[in-house]
Recover the amino acids of this structure.
């Protein structure tokens, strides 16, 4: 899809209530499932189904309706949620040598993004329940961070 809408972006991500909107220059190309306890709280779910993009391809179109929180010490992910419905919309993380990354939940992405399969589960050691799929499952903070490195590099190299 190359057609741009009124925001100037070809794709729009929005929270369930429609109050928070994010413009995307392209659909994400990397997706993972995070079972950390922070994601469980923020997403009010067993895990977060999230994507990674370079932040320069993501524009928060409704900044006055987004609330950012940090849930732990650096490296810090600024998690943006809708001020109205509380749903996660986009998180941002600065990575030295790469730049700023955007983490956008699958639940807010347009229908076209559903074709992107998740690559793996991370922080699986803190899962609420087992997941019966063939995806790789990684436990622990350091191991989960390290297994995301190839996805982050692919995002950085492809833009």
């Amino acid at each position: 899809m190359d057609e741009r809408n009124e925001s100037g972006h070809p794709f729009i991500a929005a929270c369930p209530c429609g109050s928070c909107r994010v413009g995307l220059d392209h659909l994400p190309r990397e997706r993972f499932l995070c079972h950390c306890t922070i994601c469980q709280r923020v997403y009010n779910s067993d895990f977060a189904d999230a994507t990674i993009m370079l932040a320069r391809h993501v524009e928060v179109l409704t900044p006055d309706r987004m609330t950012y929180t940090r849930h732990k010490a650096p490296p810090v992910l600024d998690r943006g949620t809708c001020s109205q419905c509380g749903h996660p919309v986009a998180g941002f993380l600065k990575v030295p040598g790469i730049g700023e990354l955007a983490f956008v939940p699958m639940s807010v992405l347009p229908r076209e993004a559903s074709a992107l399969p998740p690559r793996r589960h991370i922080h699986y050691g803190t899962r609420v329940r087992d997941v019966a799929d063939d995806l790789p499952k990684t436990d622990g903070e350091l191991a989960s961070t390290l297994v995301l490195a190839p996805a982050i590099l692919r995002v950085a190299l492809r833009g």
